[in-house]
Amino acid sequence: MMRVRETTIYVALLDEGTACWRPVQAEVLENGSYRIVSDNADPEDEHWEFPPGSVVRCTERRLSGGLCLVATSRLDGVN
Predict the structure, then answer these.
(1) How many CA within 13 A on the CB side of residue 16?
(2) Residue 66 included in any domain
(3) Amino acid 1: pLDDT
(4) For position 47, what pLDDT does the model report?
(5) Number of domains in the chain
(6) E strands of 15-74, at which residues?
(7) Domain range enclosing 28
(8) How far apart are CA 51 and CA 19, in angstroms?
């Protein structure tokens, strides 16, 4: 049985007035992309750039906690 590998990535929060990032759990896919598996517990208050279930490409970016994987584009055909 193949084990699913997960990691933490960061998704931008929209409509915050300043750059804000939400750490989320994501499944590491074979092609180097990630599927967001975390649920947005408060979708009325937090507007994620990429919703749960999205397949995204990430790049490394320096955030306040150090070098992190940040979701930069959606790959699953939905804009």
Answers:
(1) 13
(2) yes
(3) 59
(4) 96
(5) 1
(6) 21-28, 34-36, 47-48, 55-63, 66-74
(7) 6-74
(8) 17
79 within some domain: no
- Run means of pLDDT, 10 residues per run, the chain, 79 residues: 85 92 96 95 94 97 93 80
Kindly list the distances between the CA atom of residue 10 and the CA atoms of 1, 3, 37, 67, 68, in Å, as whole numbers in the listed order: 29, 22, 12, 11, 7
Looking at the domain assignment, is residue 38 inside a domain? yes
pLDDT digits over 16-35, tens only? Answer: 889 999 999 999 998 899 99
| Predicted TM-score (pTM) of this structure | 0.89
Give exposure, 24-55, as e/b (b: 16+ Cβ within 10 Å): bebebeeeebbbbebebeeeeeeebbbebebb
Specify the pLDDT at position 14.
Answer: 95
Q: How far apart are CA 68 and CA 50, in angstroms?
A: 17
Tokens describing residue 74:
């959606």
Q: Does a structural domain hold residue 1?
A: no
